[in-house]
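Dear colleague,

Thank you for sharing your sequence with our group. We've completed the structure prediction you requested, and as agreed, I am returning the results in plain text so they can be pasted directly into your records. Please verify that the sequence below matches your submission; if there's any discrepancy, let me know and we will rerun it promptly.
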Amino acid sequence: MAQSQFHHYIPRFILKTFADNFTLTTSDTDFIADTTGVFKATDSDVRLGSSKRGKGKHGKRGHQGGTRPPTEPSRPSRPSRYFSYNINVYRAKGHSNELNDIARVYGLEDMYRDINEHDCMKFEKLLSKLESSSSKFIRKIWSGEDLSLTRAQLADMKKFLCIMMYRGEHRRGQYYDGMFDMMTYMSIAKHMEHKKIERVQDVWFDNLKWLIETPVDEIMKEFMIAFEAAPNDPLSIIGKYLGPIHVTELLDFGLMVYNYVCIWEAEEGSEFILSEGCFGSFEGFMGICFHNFFIVSPRYAIVLVNRQYMWGGIDDLPRKSWFGDHLHANPETVYVKGPLPKNHTSSNFSLDDVFKYRRIIAPKKDVYTVNSIFLDARRKYLTYKSSACMYRSLQYYDKVKKRMFPNQHDYTILRRKLFADMNRTHDS
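Please find the predicted structure tokens below.
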């Protein structure tokens, strides 16, 4: 039987950018992403890691930054070359704020274990491969390098981002707790009958496996089949489509792939934050998403922008987006088959076409608005790097939450602690 593993739903290569001892060096070219709690130290980690090494025969370390909650699983043995990256984790339930090792946060034990496979960790390995590929582009974002992706690489990047939304604890919890509206639940029941799935909880992992194993072009073909099942009545797709994946998730994936990619860089003096739900958080109205946010470091966010919104096709909605056109930019595109004719078709495209992106500076107010979306959507955890930046985000959220947000959480205890931390720093 395979050893039990702690599986992350926010990749550790993103989590460790929120640690004070993380430093990106220009000589760091070997970058490995891994979803499990078993750390794989590389030469990069020797250069970037903490000087605090594991002690003892198996490199075990004690917990730092407070007492570990009794419900948290015990730590596995670590390789002797383990390096610690500790990040701030605010736990909403107990109003506790501690430094936690990234190896044991933002994940669940055996989240991706598949008992139906001979290799029960097959899915986790496929996920690690996709993360490693996507992390190369994300590292370019961090380092200031040229941001170019081929059409094929862009498709894989969007697939990674969509799966980031679907693999999270909240989306998984929807299936485990049956948190669906009646129409969605009836559609899931029909899908379970079609696929001979006995438990609604298993639909989540069944969908996730299909998404990770299926090439993007095949997913999009299935997406078009779903629409052709009811071309004049999109809502009836839920009742008519039968396929390899639950149709609601297929439609979400397909619509996300059609979105535009923008890279937002936080204005100096501000930072993005994380929550366990931030990779599923969005800004929208009446079921239409204007923006989906994917935080890849305190400084940078990848944002998927609704194609119709970019084109002005949904300007008649009662509410406009909170984010203006200054945060949108089309990439410079190099078509390998030459300039596109006026009446071009998909045959004029190539998987080797190159999209060149630029970093768009997001003013502090826009960064605070993104953070406020996460603050209002948070369920269990929050993570930040700078106490001062987090404090300003909380101030902004308190100022706007009554007129902008439904949940209106109270962060008084966290705000007081941050204020005390800032004063201690200034006094010293």
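Summary note from our side: Residues 308 and 314 are 6 Å apart (CA to CA).

Kind regards,
the structure core
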